[in-house]
Design goal:
With about 270 residues, the protein is α/β, with parallel strands linked by helices. The protein is built from 11 helices and 10 strands. The strands form 2 sheets. Strands 1-2-3-4-5-6-7-10 form an 8-stranded parallel beta barrel, surrounded by 6 helices. It has a two-stranded antiparallel ribbon with strand order 8-9. Strand 6, helix 6 and strand 7 form a beta-alpha-beta unit. Helix 7 packs across helix 9. The chain is globular and about 45 Å long. It starts with 10 loop residues before the first strand and ends in a 13-residue tail after the last helix. The model has no long low-confidence stretch (mean pLDDT about 95).
């Protein structure tokens, strides 16, 4: 395998979403190129909002192989979005609703067989209760790790609490926003503190230990993080990816470039003509 197991299917293609905002006629062929590239194993489904489905089906290049529906407007969006996606291969649904129980009920009643789902959970004091609701369901948790304002980025302690809470309950999760790069850093333009996706992978290895998870999230040395990633056993990698299943990124290239720079991912040598 060209792509190590730790990174397979990790990068959901959120090219349509901020801050990338790639026009759909460009995003669709770009996704097709990712899915046919040597690193295709690292690329997850094409994320599309409910309001873009009609536009997506009309793209001359043809629809992506797999799409995941992103529904931030609540459970009432689920049935119309599924109907609008008729003819597409829907691999997943990501649903946000102020009431997690309502989201779970809607998914249980309307989600087609074989389609995965994630429920976006609220930040703040209500998070543990929301985790409890989701723990006994077949659905993943979804948590925001960034955005277009400083307040959209959870602290190390807050994110570690979420990761540990999910591990305690055996609840898989995905993240969204702010994880374009492998290593924790301060954005030189905005000054925002960004979590690194490699930090999150290693924090997931801490399981229910929030203190260890926070320490992994705080690490800013790419060399140390890369060394720790190389030391994970096959069993640990399996555990990590069972917990942290994917994250949405508006750039597929940036995380791959970071992994290559850290020596964690190597493109195959070009084939010579015979």
């Amino acid at each position: 395998m060209t792509v190590p197991a730790l990174y397979r299917g990790l990068f959901d293609d959120a090219a349509l979403f901020p801050p990338g905002d790639l026009p759909l006629p460009e995003a669709v062929p770009a996704h097709a190129a990712h899915r046919s590239a040597w690193y295709a194993e690292a690329v997850g489904p094409f994320l599309v909002g409910a309001g873009r489905l009609a536009e997506l089906t009309a793209v001359p290049a043809g629809a992506p192989q797999q799409v995941a529906l992103v529904l931030p407007g609540g459970s009432s969006q689920l049935a119309p979005a599924l109907a609008a996606a008729d003819g597409l291969t829907v691999a997943g649904v990501e649903l946000a609703d102020p009431d997690v129980r309502t989201a779970v009920a809607a998914l249980a009643a309307q989600l087609p067989a074989g389609v995965e789902a994630a429920v976006e959970l609220p930040r703040g004091e209500g998070l543990p209760a929301a985790l409890d609701v989701l723990a006994d369901t077949p659905y993943r948790a979804k948590f925001r790790t960034g955005g277009l304002a400083a307040g959209a980025f959870p602290s190390e302690a807050e994110l570690a609490g979420f990761l540990a809470g999910c591990a305690e309950r055996g609840l898989p999760y995905k993240c969204t926003a702010g994880l374009h790069h492998a290593v924790r850093h301060t954005d030189p333009v905005t000054g925002f503190e960004h979590h690194g996706f490699l930090n999150v992978l290693l924090a997931a290895a801490a399981g229910p230990d929030a203190k260890l998870a926070a320490e992994a999230l705080a690490e800013r040395s790419g060399a140390l993080l890369a060394a720790a990633a190389r030391e994970l056993t096959d069993h640990q990698v399996e555990q990590v990816r069972a917990r942290f299943t994917a994250f949405g990124t508006c750039s597929i290239a940036e995380p791959l470039e970071d992994l290559a720079a850290l020596g964690l991912l190597t493109a195959p040598a070009p084939q010579e003509d015979r």
